[in-house]
Amino acid sequence: MSVFLAVVIVTVLGLAGAIVLVVASHFMQVQTDERIELIQEVLPSVNCGACGFAGCADYAGAVVESGAAVNLCIPGGASTAEAVAEIMGVNAGEVGKQKAIVACQGTFAHRDRQYTYDGIETCAASATLHGGSSTCPYGCLGYGDCVVACKFDAIEVEDGVARVDMTKCTGCGACATACPKRVIWIREESEKPVVMCANHQRGAITRKACTAGCISCMKCEKVCPSGAIKVRDNVARIDLDKCTGCRACVNECPVRAITVPKAV
User: What gap in Å lies between CA 100 and CA 89, rounded to an integer?
Assistant: First the structure.
C-alpha cells in the first residue's frame, strides 16, 4: 500500500511540475518577429560577414530589431536587397556590385624565392617566417588561404599568384580578410584600370624583387588627362572617382603593372 501511495504522490508531483512549466513557458516566452525568419529565407545563407555581422541570422535580426540597412548583403546584390526591403516595407536603395582584385602580378616568371619554404603550406604560416619566401615582401604568397576562404569557388592560385574569376566573385571580402599580405582588395565593379602592385619600396628595389612591380616612374601620372593617378609612397594609385577609363596609363606603364582586371 505504501508503495502504491508513493507512486501516486510522485505522479501527481510530476503532473503538477509539468503544468507549472507549460504555464511558465506560455507567459515567459519571447516573441520572435516573423520578419526575421522571412529575411533569413531570402538571404544567400553563406555567412560571409560582408554585411558587418557574424552571419545571415545576425544580419536578419539586426535589420528587424536594430534598423540595420537592408542593402548590406554584398553576395545577394540588388535582388536580395529588394526582397529584404519589401519585407520591411522600405526602399532598398542602391547596391553597388563589389569584386575582389589581387593586386599582384608576381608570377614565378617575374620574381624569385629567397629560400625554400618547408613548413605548413598556408600563407599565414609562411608570412611568419621573414615575411614569406618571395623576393617581394609585399606580394601574394601563393599558398591559397584565400582559396580556402572563398565560398563561391571564385579564386584560385595559378603560377604562384592568386587570381579571381570575376564571373563567380560576389565581393564578399572573405579572401581579403584571409590574406596576410593584404594584396586582395574589394572595389566596386568597373572596367577602370587598377595598379596591380602593393610594393612600397623604391623603384630600383622593387625592380629587383619583381619585374612586374610598379617602379614609381610617374609616367602614368604625367600621361593621365584627368589627374586620376598619383604616385604615393613609391607606388601608383588610381582615384576611381576621377578616372575616366581612357587607359592612357595602361598603355604608358613600362612594366605593365597597370591593367584592367578580367575574368580568368
Answer: 32
